[in-house]
């Protein structure tokens, strides 16, 4: 794996019987890059992400994430990445502080480090007034921003975000992307799936999966030039129509 690449994928494949859910995909992601991983429902992007985060074993191919092999070092991968699932990942029946403490413990942080991180996180998100309230009582946008921050508690090399802004209002979406840019500027690689094509414009590079294969991969600017269109939604539509 090249020094600047934190994800290296070559011919990665996942079969379910005779069906190739992910069909020999190949790409690399650089440190600090915001990498958009796009595709319609059923295109294979969620299956691919599950292999990369170490919870699903590939059928064949080669893949290294944060320097670790997905076939043999899945547990090491989990320790070096953050992950925010499509469905809200925190516990509604715990308070904001309790969630931070719980996940800090899972990530192996010391009590002192959890205390320090908790104070900073609550201040940055301006959650002082609700720090002792149940997470379930918070608006969805606050929940999503808190979930993202918790996924970064242990300073992972890479954070995987699965549809992180689904269902939130435009203002919260913009605030969320400001948080993504901040993490990337601090050296964290961001691997994000989204079905909002305008958000693809915010990524450094974008890959688009169709029927288990990566059919396009480049910067948003170059993809729009390649397909002779003005926006990423039209790029996606052209690929989807074949």
UniProtKB/TrEMBL annotation:
GO terms for molecular function: ATP binding; ATP hydrolysis activity. Residues 7-236 form the ABC transporter domain. Gene3D superfamilies: P-loop containing nucleotide triphosphate hydrolases. InterPro entries: AAA+_ATPase, ABC_transporter-like_ATP-bd, P-loop_NTPase. It is found in: Membrane. It comes from the Bacteria. It is a multi-pass membrane protein. GO terms for cellular component: membrane. Keywords: ATP-binding, Membrane, Nucleotide-binding, Transmembrane, Transmembrane helix, Transport. This is ABC-2 type transport system ATP-binding protein.
């Amino acid at each position: 794996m090249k020094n600047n690449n934190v994800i290296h994928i070559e011919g990665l494949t996942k079969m379910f019987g005779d069906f190739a859910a992910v069909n020999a995909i190949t790409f690399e992601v650089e440190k600090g890059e915001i990498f958009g991983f796009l595709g319609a429902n059923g295109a294979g992007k969620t299956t691919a992400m599950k292999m990369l985060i170490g919870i699903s074993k590939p059928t064949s191919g080669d893949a290294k994430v944060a320097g670790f092999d997905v076939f043999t070092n899945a547990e090491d991968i989990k320790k070096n990445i953050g992950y925010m699932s499509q469905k809200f990942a925190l516990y509604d029946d715990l308070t904001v502080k309790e969630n931070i403490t719980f996940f800090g413990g899972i990530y192996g942080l010391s009590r002192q480090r959890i205390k320090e991180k908790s104070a900073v996180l609550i201040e940055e998100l301006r959650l002082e007034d609700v720090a002792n309230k149940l997470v379930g009582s918070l608006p969805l946008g606050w929940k999503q921003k808190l979930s993202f921050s918790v996924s970064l508690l242990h300073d992972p090399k890479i954070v995987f975000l699965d549809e992180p802004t689904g269902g939130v209002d435009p203002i919260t979406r913009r605030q969320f992307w400001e948080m993504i840019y901040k993490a990337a500027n601090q050296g964290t690689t961001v691997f994000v799936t989204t079905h909002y094509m305008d958000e693809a414009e915010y990524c450094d590079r974008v890959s688009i999966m169709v029927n288990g294969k990566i059919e396009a991969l480049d910067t948003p600017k170059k993809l729009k030039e390649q397909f002779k269109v003005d926006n990423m939604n039209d790029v996606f539509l052209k690929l989807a129509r074949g």
